[in-house]
Structure formats: C-alpha cells, structure tokens
Amino acid sequence: MNKILKIFLIAALALLITGCAKESTELDFSKPFTENQVVRVLEENFSKMNKVNKEIEEDDKIQGVSPVFYQPENDEGLVGIYVFDSLRERKEAGSWNSFFGFDFESNKKRIFSANNVLIKYQWTEENIEHWKTASSLGDIVLKKLNPYEEISFFGQGQDWMGFYKIGYYEYFSEDEKGTLIYDAWNVKEGKAVYKRWEPGDEFQIVYKLDFPHGSISGETVLSSRELKLSNSASSGASFNNTESLEMEISWEGKTEKVILHKNDVEIRYEAEKDVPDIVKEMAYDNVRINIDHYNSFENETVVDAKITGLSRIETGTASENLDIQMWLLEYRILSESEEPLIMAGGMTLDEEGWRTEYASMGQPIIVVVHYLEGDRWEKIGMTSTGTIAEENNDFSNAAVEMFEKYSQKN
C-alpha cells in the first residue's frame, strides 16, 4: 500500500474514532445512558463531580445494582449513579422519582430517575443547604437528563388571576432485545391571585381546578394575595393537546370561574443570572400578564417574549434581620398584527418593533423582602418608577412603606 495513502487512512480512522467517542456523549433518549454521559450533564449544569472510592455496602445497592459515588464540588453530600442495563430494568427496580421532595424511606436521601439511570443524593448532617442541593439536582435531572417540555396556562377574571404550569416528559427507550419501553412523568404547580386583596383581609375560600385526567380542589383560609395550588407529581404525560383549564373559586358568597388559556409563547430569560428565584418568578408572572393582555386584542397575537433585565435598586433598607429589595424589570414582547399595534397604557416600541416595559407610569419594579434569619423570602408586590415619583417618594421610603403595608411578617 502506498505509504502516503496508509498514513491518510490511519489519520482518517483516528478522526472517525474520535468523532464516534464525542458522539457517544450526546444524549439519545431512545438508548440507555452511560455513566460518563450522566456525569457530563451534571458537570455542565450542576457542579464539578469528583469520583469517590467508597466501599459499597449492601444497603447502597438497588435491585443488586451498585452505585458509583461522586461528590459535588464544595458539598458534603454524595451523589450515587446507578446504571441499569435498560429502562425496563430501572423501572422494575421501583418508582423512585422525588422531584417534589418526597422520599418515604429517608428524609436525608433523594432519588431521581432518567432513562435507565437512578441518581441518588444523600447526606448525613441536618443542613438546609443539603435540601437546596437536592432540589437543584432534581431540577437538573428532570430538565436536562429527560426530554422535558413545559406548558404554561394563565387567565384572569374580575377578581382572580390563575397561573398553572405542567412540566412533563415522555419517550420510548430500547432495551437489549430491541423492545421499546415507555416512560413518562409530570409535575404540576400553580397559584391563584386575589386581585382585590388588602392587608388584613382574611376569609374562607373553596377552590377547584380542572385539568386533563383529574382535578384538584380544597377549602382554606386566604390571608394573603396568593393561594398556592397544591404541587403534584405522577407518572404519565400527554398534555400536548390541552388548550385550557378551568378554575373556580367561591368566597364570601361570591363565585368566579376563570379560564386559564395555554400560553404557547416561551418567555426567554436573557437577564442577569445572579438574581433570586423569587424575583425571577415575579418577573415571569408580570410578563405573562402582559402577554395575556395583548393577546386579548382582536387581530393581534404575541409570538415572542423575553426578560432582558433585572437590576437591583439600592434602597439602603438592609438590617441585621431583613433586607427589603427592589428590582427594576425590563422586558420585550413581540406581536404580529393585521392592523397597527394598539399601544395601550403608553407602551412604547423599540427600534426592532418589540413592545418595551416603558409605560405611562414608567418602568415596573419588583419588591421582595429577604428575612436573613432562616433565609426566608417573601413577595411584597409590584410598583413603578412613575408611581414612586408621583408620590414624591424615594426608593427607600417606598420600599419601607410597601413592606409595612403588604408584608405578612410571619
């Protein structure tokens, strides 16, 4: 064989092998995962993982499968990765998903599933940081190691607004015999917001929310503007064709039904990363309300939305016990319209045709409080730069006044 040709073939083979090795790290949900694939995803999205040479005890095994232990960087807990030969074998080992924090065997252990793999996080010392780590790990496994999809619903009536979110995955994976095995999971969470709530209001309410394949209902005392609808998680999915949910709330001799419509627009997050989760949640809620408002206009459809900025405003209100925070919200909403856009409330367009957060009352401001003891956060509410200026106030006084008026202080 020609020497040059031989060298070329060897080089080509080396490139092919390298390419295959690289390709093998990509997730294919129809095929079993490897330990290396799982570790790569965790390191890209969660933490650097350091392998631990720990003696495997019998209690460590699940259905005879031993874990490989890793320790996340700067964390005292252990992550055990169990790799089964197939999705079928993993499912035969039991249903272990604890994405919402329930694990009936131990309150110092959380187990999550992804295809043919179980991922266990365990710790020994009582520490709130371990629960936070477990929650973060579960979120990564759910959304990055499964083909996760999410559907949001929003609607509002005269007195109530409703938010509901269904996250789910469903797929088929092939076992060693070529048989396709189905797996599916869903998590649901939502809330109702009483638009007319004032500090001191407290009354009995009865609520019901109908969604595909069931409903949730209950009776409780409402003592704040928000009612958390019960979180739930279960096997199964198939929510693609769900277009609306119906929420019914009865209180003080009144009843209101609100239709929550499917929001096909994904609100992209392009703002600062180091922002408290509670602030991000309030930002998403505010943008969703505006999307629903613009979609209510005839011949207009929102096609894209993004949060472009969340900047903390210095209020000078931090003390040893609490920190009242204000965050300036910036966003963009893009509509398609058969007619000239309706610019309600003094809204403006940027140079690319996106609606901005600027309105007649200025820009929206999110107000939250962080209770330092116990690391507890609470939503206070929304205001605007124009409202603060109109009241001849400054940010510090406005933050304190809103805290004193709307905080539950419990």
Number of domains: 3
Main beta sheet strand tally, sense and closure: 8 strands, antiparallel
Number of helices: 7
Low-confidence stretches: 5-12, 14-23
Instruction: Provide the succession of SSEs.
Output: HHEEEHEEHEEEEEEEEEHEEEEEHH
Distance between the termini: 83 Å
Report the mean per-residue pLDDT as an integer: 86
Helical residue percent? Answer: 10-25%
Q: Taking strands numbered 1, 2, ... along the chain, how are they ordered across the largest sheet?
A: 10-9-12-13-6-7-8-11
Concise overview:
This protein is an alpha+beta fold and 410 residues long. The chain contains seven helices and 19 strands.
Outline the structure in words:
The structure is a single chain. The chain is an alpha+beta fold. It contains 7 helices and 19 strands. The strands form 3 sheets. An 8-stranded antiparallel β-sheet has the order 10-9-12-13-6-7-8-11, with helices on one face. Strands 14, 15, 16, 17, 18 and 19 form a 6-stranded mixed β-sheet that branches. A hairpin with a 5-residue loop joins strand 2 (68-72) and strand 3 (78-83). The chain is globular.
